[in-house]
Model the fold of this input.
Amino acid sequence: MSEPRIPAELIHRLRSARRVAVLTGAGISAESGVPTFREAQTGLWAQYNPEELATPDAFRRNPQLVWDWYLSRQERVRLAEPNPGHLALVEMERRIADFTLITQNVDGLHRRAGSHQILELHGNLFRAKCFSEDCPVENPPPESGEILPRCPQCGGLLRPDVVWFGEMLPANILRAAEKAATQAEVFFSIGTSALVYPAADLPLTALTAGAMVVEINPQPTPLSPHVTFSLNGAAGVVLPALIAQTWGIVA
Ligand code: BV8
Done:
């Protein structure tokens, strides 16, 4: 399959850009074998809707079920490797003076790929925190099937350190993401269905502030009609082509 052709205007703009921001969603980890958030779940989890499991109420009702879901996702991610899409963003960070990577993903694959300026809007699968007093804790959550982990400070239940539906995003991280979106000359929305707020507001914030907004997704999304360029393809194919055609290298 021939390499996708990146619009000349985008290449030109990227070469001279000082400030670039990128928003990623589950789609950028799809080529690492990590199922996307809304992809049909398999096995035991096929009977559950992720949006119903990723809530405080689900945890209150059945903490073991919710922990087992997160532990099964951890196991999937441990077996996964960053893919060429992740690696292309590491190269883009090297080329841009003021680069911000904003991710909705909780899989930690951007950091494993070598990205540094990362804002994890929705937390991280491999961190835990206290469900009662919100004390941050370091020790890893339990192996699957063990008794439920308790907070060493207050004895309450530990929970995955992710943002569930109905919960506020970390205010400092969201503020930094909004600032990056407002200041970006080029803003990418990559591998996200643009359905979950407030993350889905960020590309529109960038557009309103005058940025060139570029979407990379094999499917159209509610954002597609508004963007400057819609590159219809897989992140692991389009991003390496963009790096090669902009800076003449293979990421
Ligand atoms: C909030 C962590 C203020 C957990 C996640 C009612 C009550 C309360 C809130 C709401 C409500 N109604 C609406 C809301 C707001 C709600 C929301 O937006 N709901 C949506 C569903 C309408 N948002 C919230 O609740 C947020 N908090 O608003 O607080 C508040 C508080 C109280 C009351 C009111 C307001 C918190 C949202 C955070 C939820 N946590 N994750 C966990 O992961 O377990 S979100 C979850 O969805 C993941 O993080 C995921 O990243 C994210 C977004 O999904 P995507 O990443 O886009 O993934 P998806 O599968 O959808 O799409 C994948 C895309 O990739 C597809 O487009 C596909 O085409 C593409 N793709 C596939 N392959 C590739 C590819 N692209 C490129 N390359 C490929 N190879």
